[in-house]
Design a protein that fits this description.
about 220 residues; mainly alpha; Diphtheria Toxin Repressor, domain 2; 11 helices; about 0% strand
Length: about 220
């Protein structure tokens, strides 16, 4: 048996010339960096999809009159309207997926801005409602409170309807009469406060709304 012969230099040189050169590590790193800069990663795309889905869910939770003020196209609006009518869990899941898909073509920043504005308006309305409740309690407990309320919100302190409601609500609280005057007084106060706020615009200070104990 013949011993193995060493490979000739010519064969080795030829192999070196024909084999591709080993990859350069620096070049590979640069290529990967370029790829990362050119397109987002899978995890980033997944986070974006989840964010759009949550935004779509927030739209679906709005009341129709609230949704009307949000800048979305007709296809997305119709998909949201349909989602409100679906009672099947599986059907609703598929519809939510459709809404998330349509959200990719929507202006997410404009939608967020509209939702934030609506949230601020909701908080202002809640604060006003609490203030109306506080004023009602003060009017029932303090005979001089009506003058303060009238000056604060620009109404007639001798308004016979308001004076009558206050008297009837006091009687209800004392148990000497029944009826809905207590609730009606709250609604009348809230309406007067809303009208005053609308006349003054959005520059009205929250402090005055929430502090019925002020003495103008």
């Amino acid at each position: 048996m013949k011993p193995d012969m060493p490979r000739s230099r010519k064969t080795a040189r030829q192999q070196a010339e024909t084999d591709p050169p080993p990859p350069d590590a620096t070049a590979l790193a640069l290529d990967e960096a370029d790829d990362r800069g050119a397109r987002p990663s899978k995890s980033a795309l997944k986070r974006q999809a989840h964010e759009l889905q949550r935004l779509g869910d927030a739209l679906a939770a709005l009341r129709p009159e609230q949704l009307a003020s949000v800048p979305i196209d007709d296809a997305l609006r119709e998909a949201i309207d349909l989602a409100r009518r679906i009672r099947s869990r599986e059907g609703l899941r598929r519809q939510r997926q459709l809404i998330g898909k349509l959200m990719r073509e929507a202006d997410a920043d404009a939608i967020r801005a509209a939702l934030e504005a609506g949230s601020a308006g909701h908080r202002a309305e809640v604060a006003l409602a609490h203030a109306a409740e506080d004023w009602r309690e003060r009017l029932l407990a303090d005979a001089t409170a009506l003058s303060a309320f009238a000056r604060r919100f620009g109404i007639d302190p001798d308004d016979p309807g308001l004076v009558r409601l206050i008297g009837q609500a006091r009687a209800e609280r004392a148990g000497t009469r029944s009826g809905g005057s207590y609730r009606s007084l709250y609604r009348k106060l809230l309406a007067a406060m809303r009208e005053h706020e609308a006349a003054r615009g959005t520059g009205e200070t929250t402090q005055h709304q929430q502090d019925p104990q002020e003495r103008p």
